[in-house]
Design a protein that fits this description.
Strand order of the largest sheet: 3-2-1-4-5-6-7
CATH superfamily: NAD(P)-binding Rossmann-like Domain
Distance between the termini: 32 Å
Strand content: 15-25%
Number of domains: 1
Helix content: 40-55%
CATH class: Alpha Beta
Number of strands: 7
Largest sheet: 7 strands, parallel
Structural class: alpha/beta
CATH topology: Rossmann fold
Length: about 240
């Protein structure tokens, strides 16, 4: 896990220019990691002790062009996303593309890289989803996109073959509301959330829940358990 060979590891963070991305970057830099920040916007930010060591600009739908950069990464944190209240059809398409399909493409690409990895350091991918995966967020397009990526990650993790499990660790991070430009009334601070992510990710748990809502701590483990059982049935049926 991330305690081992700490100073030799590289962390990749998508959405690194956002509130949580900045705090995660700062924390990992303080812990001695090399950080590569992925951004949809500009990449000419100042490089300092609290910024990524390297900025990479990317576009949704062109994730495959990032393979060279992803090969350098030991821990990939998929943290990017949008929250738009528009009722336009284009908003639903953008939310699904950015919040769900883009993260799934990153995951699949990183899986392919992990399978060809000869390093002793096991690759890890942490996917930031949301309570909106199963709880209301007062934003239908956001809820749909988070529900989709949540199911994709659950099925992906539970249907991994044994060879892939030896090469890749998948973690799902369920976040409650935290303060950011997208959610200025969030209850938790990005700094608090980043520390919880770092500390809980040291555990062997697949599911990491950071929320003040007790329902999340009850419902998400149940949901993941039933997904696990369902995937076991699929395995038996296929064999």
């Amino acid at each position: 896990m991330i305690n081992a060979i700490k100073n030799e590891k590289t962390v990749g963070i998508t959405g690194a220019s956002g509130a949580l991305g900045k705090e995660l970057t700062k924390l990992f830099r303080q812990k001695g990691y090399r950080v590569i920040g992925f951004s949809h916007s500009k990449t000419d930010y100042e490089i300092n002790l609290e910024s990524p060591n390297e900025w990479i600009k990317w576009e949704c739908g062109k994730e495959s062009k990032l393979a060279t950069h992803l090969k350098k990464i030991d821990i990939l944190i998929l943290n990017h996303g949008i929250y738009n209240l528009s009722r336009e059809n284009s908003n639903y398409e953008n939310s699904i593309e950015i919040n769900a399909l883009s993260k799934f493409k990153f995951l699949n690409l990183f899986e392919d890289i992990a399978l060809k990895n000869d390093s002793l350091i096991k690759k890890e991918v942490w996917i930031n989803t949301s309570e909106a995966e199963i709880l209301p967020a007062l934003n239908p397009s956001y809820e749909i996109s988070k529900s989709l990526i949540g199911k994709l990650v659950s099925f992906k993790k539970n249907l991994l073959n044994q060879d892939t499990k030896k090469k890749l660790t998948i973690k799902k991070i369920i976040l409650g509301p935290f303060k950011s430009e997208l959610n200025p009334i969030g209850i938790m601070s990005p700094k608090f959330v980043s520390k919880k992510i770092y500390n809980l990710a040291n555990s062997k748990n697949y599911l990491i829940i950071i929320s003040p809502n007790p329902l999340s701590h009850l419902l998400f483990p149940l949901k993941e358990f039933f997904n696990f059982l369902y995937c076991q049935i699929i395995y038996r049926y296929k064999s």
